[in-house]
Amino acid sequence: MGDLPVVDAERKIILADDDAIMRELASAKLLEAGYQVVTACNGAEALSLLKKEGADMVISDLDMPVMNGFELTEAIRSDAEVGETPVMVITASDRGDAVDRAFAAGATSFLAKPMNWSLFHHAVKFVLRANDDRKALRAARDQAEAGAKFKDSLMSVMSHELRTPLNAIIGFGQIIADQFSKQNDNLHKEYADYIVDGGRRLLNSVSDMLLASDARSGPIVLNETDVSLGVLVDDALAGVEKTVRLAEASVSLKLCSREVEVCCDRALLSRAIRKLVDNSVKFGPRGVEIILGAALTRQGGLAIMVKDNGPGIKAERMGELTAPFAQLDMSLRRSREGLGLGLPLVKVIADAHGGSFRIDSRLDEGARAIIMIPKARVMAMSATKNADCEGRQQVA
After folding, report:
1. Does the global pTM surpass 0.90?
2. Cβ–Cβ under 8 Å, residues 367 and 308
3. 341 to each of 344, 347, 349, how far by Cα in Å?
4. Which residues form the Histidine kinase domain (predicted)?
């Protein structure tokens, strides 16, 4: 339950002015409005009262002996305990920079002398209400941040806790499936395959959630190694063979060379490529044609591309694609599996390698997704290898 608003009668205001008549008039107006008022004849006295007794607001003249209003405001703002107290300054100075200097020191608002007493109370009320709103917004922000941290921590813990039993389920499921296969027991082998497939699907979702949680908490830690482009592509396609086959899709490889070496996190980068292929299959029609290509850029980097002839993407949705959980339909009745984390995680993985990720698409003209790997991570190749482009047709 939120804090209840404080009524004006409970508000305490410190009024600092070296003019006794001004203090008397302003105090009378504030008391008449229902505020508690404590007066001070200079900034040093006002600062001492604020630190000792506290207050909801400080009203200070700018021109005072011992400590003027500028110095008082700066002293309040530099104090950790009372630094958030709103400060209204009052000035009779004809210098044009006086108000600017006051705001630079940290003043919340100002009034000019001679005072408009009919508006004085309303000005004070406005500053106090604005400060209440600012506190409420800060409390809501802190609460939201705490909630986000809790969700990320819970997601991370749950992901770790689920991976161990899931690996056991998948491993023993494969053993059982192999045993049924040896016995030519196709029915029970099919059941075991369902267990393995379900376990893998859940493990992939858990891994995606864990990676998303790690990305929110800070930079992803890479397990870097030198790996050839051919191995990355083979790793990526190995994870989507069944998906591609069931969708009757085709994947064409167009690589400048399988021998190009990349310093990267092999598991993460191949996972990013796999997600792009899987995304093309998932959102494309049956028999969708996919091109998985790679080429060295003029700057010496590596561009990895996945292109399809699917339905394409509306221009207004392009900006949403790398936002987490941004599937077209996130209801429980949606027709496609997944958490909507695929493309956002591809971007996270590309960024972690110092690269970039972009998607080009037009409605009904398919889509092209490109991961850019920087030159520093790409091993130099001979001119012969660089010119040797291979293209293979692979139908799964």
Report:
1. no
2. yes
3. 5, 10, 12
4. 157-377
